[in-house]
Design goal:
The protein has one domain: Growth Hormone, Chain: A, CATH 1.20.1250. It has 18 helices and 2 strands. The protein has a two-stranded antiparallel ribbon. Helix 7 runs antiparallel to helix 16. The radius of gyration is 20 Å and the shape is globular. The protein starts with a helix and ends in a 10-residue tail after the last helix.
Length: about 425
């Protein structure tokens, strides 16, 4: 097989890697952000979640634009916007300016996931789509791991402002690479034709996806399975482990990294298993039930940090099954509406990430006793345990969604 499709997909997946790095970056900056902007967990949660709000709100328009104008220009412009967002955030001297910079980062990286999947859908055969979805998620997890211990070391050496300014330069380089290298489709391939009747209208793909009940059940499964990962590993896991085990940030970040590494392994694993078994629903159920049982164990059992870290790793592997959301939703809708469908379901994932990051911060502030350390709020274990009730609640909702998904046997609509 030609290496060209892998190059096209690889560049797009690399941008997703960058986007996931930005997604989890505040998790190792919580204390610095609270101190420098003089805020509590609620505002810090909103600051982190602004990425998700901006990202989620653009998923449907981006899906449509990818269907209409192709990924090359979308990826190029988006990388430039992300670079500006990182740079502005690094210069912020008030919460308002930090909000603006963080939102720009979310806007710029909003194309990363759907863009990578769009590239995969036009450069590879449909039978490889679930595997490539998992591999794309694995690339994201590589960025997420980079946003833990390596980012923590960079923040300690250069400060959070200098580190974000450096990431802005990386995004600018990627914009140049997209403009020079990425192509919308293989040479000689025809542009996809819109579907009949409604398919000639701009919003026809969105209309059809919203009319399909399975879009909602698959979204419930994937969004609620991803929400605990985005909430815990994306923001609150490091300070929680620092409080629970009285360890330094690098050790706590290392444990959280294992969860992300597990997610990176589990995503292509569940994608491959699903393709190999020609089933979607069974791997979904295995994924969410495993996630729920393991989360209840590490959250409520009195475990040493080493054993808890193993469970975080296994929890991440199980959560990797959420990538089946994208293949399954795509198979329940026409191929010509792939971009719109992927945009809708990814909006649900990112929107839930924003909601539960903010909700967890609000619950923490409700339980705050007034304790401070170097200007940052300190939360008791009772406050953490109450706030983290949202994690198993999300997984129970995900299980309901998986039970209501109709099996496709990996056969997409035409």
């Amino acid at each position: 097989m030609s290496l060209l499709p892998w190059l096209m997909w690889g560049l797009a997946a690399l941008f997703y890697c960058f986007g996931f790095f930005q997604r989890v970056a505040p998790g190792v900056m919580v204390q610095e952000l609270m101190r420098d902007f003089a805020v509590g967990a609620t505002i810090t949660g909103v600051l982190s979640a602004l990425y998700f709000y901006a990202y989620a709100s653009l998923q449907i328009p981006i899906g449509l634009m990818l269907d209409r104008i192709g990924p090359r220009r979308m990826l190029t412009v988006s990388a430039l916007v992300a670079a500006l967002g990182c740079y502005f955030f690094s210069l912020a001297d008030s919460v308002g300016l930090a909000y603006a910079g963080r939102a720009l980062v979310g806007i710029g990286t909003a194309v990363t996931w759907v863009g990578a999947l769009k590239v995969a859908s036009v450069w590879f055969q449909p039978k490889r789509f679930a595997l490539l979805t998992g591999l794309t998620m694995a690339m994201g997890m590589a960025g997420a791991v980079g946003g833990q211990v390596p980012l923590g070391l960079a923040v300690a050496e250069f400060g959070w402002r200098g580190t974000l300014a450096g990431s802005a330069m990386i995004a600018a380089v990627m914009a140049v690479a997209f403009a020079l290298i990425v192509r919308d489709r293989p040479a000689g391939a025809e542009a996809p034709k819109p579907g009949p009747d409604e398919g000639t209208k701009l919003w026809s793909g969105v209309a059809l996806a919203f009319k399909e009940p399975q879009t909602y059940w698959t979204s419930l499964f994937g969004a609620m399975l991803a929400a605990p990962m985005l909430t815990f590993a994306g923001l609150w896991g490091v300070p929680y482990l620092m409080t629970r085990y009285e360890v330094a940030r690098p050790e706590a970040a290392g444990a959280v990294s294992l969860m992300l590494i597990g997610w990176g392994i589990g995503s292509p694993l569940f994608g491959w298993l699903s393709d190999h078994w020609h089933q979607r629903r069974l791997p979904m159920l295995v994924s969410v039930i495993g996630s729920l049982v393991i989360t209840l164990a590490w959250l409520y059992l009195p475990l040493p940090l080493g054993l808890l870290s193993v469970l975080l790793f296994l929890s991440g592997i199980c959560a990797g099954g959420m990538v089946l959301l994208f293949a399954t939703a795509r198979e329940h809708n026409p191929i010509w509406a792939a971009g719109a469908t992927l945009g809708i379901v990814n909006m649900s994932v990112m929107g839930n990430g924003a909601i539960f990051q903010s909700l967890t911060g609000w619950l923490l502030d409700l339980g705050w006793t007034g304790a401070l350390s170097n200007g940052a709020r300190i939360y008791s274990m009772e406050a953490w345990q109450t706030a983290f009730l949202v994690l198993p609640a999300c997984q129970i909702a995900s299980l309901i969604g998986a039970l209501l998904v109709r099996e496709t046997h990996c056969r997409p609509q035409k």
